[in-house]
Amino acid sequence: MFGLFKKKKIGRSEEEKRAEQLPRTKKVQFEPMTIAETEQQIDQDLRSVLSFTPVNYYATKNKYLLCTFFYEEDYSEVWLRFELRTDDLPRGRTKMYQIDKLLMRDILRKFGQNINIGD
């Protein structure tokens, strides 16, 4: 009876299920752009993320593109997903993209963060 009122989860892809099981996450923000535009650029070239403009969350909380990394502690497996947020509420998100630890390092360097990837 009480199960009748529970929200149903929207089906997730195998990539999402795998990525969300990874032990670590990290989030950074970029200038807002549409989800379609974001996916188009990333589908053409994964490294196009490096051309996105980083923003300070506290300066632009009203609208931004949230990038969430899901990764293993040793960076052997890294996934990322972008989510357009307006007033801190999700307004759409991209599919999951598997990237290598070098691209993650390069993206985080745009924010002044350095990770030790063990090379």
Secondary structure topology:
Layout: H1 14-20, E1 24-30, H2 35-44, E2 63-71, E3 78-86, E4 89-93, E5 97-99, H3 101-109
Antiparallel strand pairs: 1-2, 2-3, 3-4, 3-5
Q: Describe it for me?
A:
Strands 1, 2, 3, 4 and 5 form a five-stranded antiparallel β-sheet that branches. The model has no long low-confidence stretch (mean pLDDT 90). This protein is α+β, with helices and mostly antiparallel strands. The chain is built from three helices and five strands.
Radius of gyration: 15 Å
Q: How many strands, which pairing sense, and closed or not: the largest β-sheet? A: 5 strands, antiparallel
Order of helices and strands: HEHEEEEH
User: Would you report the number of β strands?
Assistant: 5
Helical amount: 10-25%
> How would you sum up the global shape?
globular
Tally of separate helices: 3
The secondary structure category is alpha+beta
- Terminal residue distance: 55 Å
Quaternary assembly: single chain
Give descriptors for this structure.
119 residues; alpha+beta; five-stranded antiparallel sheet; 22% helix
Précis, in short:
The protein is α+β, with helices and mostly antiparallel strands and 119 residues long. It is 22% helix and 28% strand. It is built from three helices and five strands; from the N terminus they run H-E-H-E-E-E-E-H.
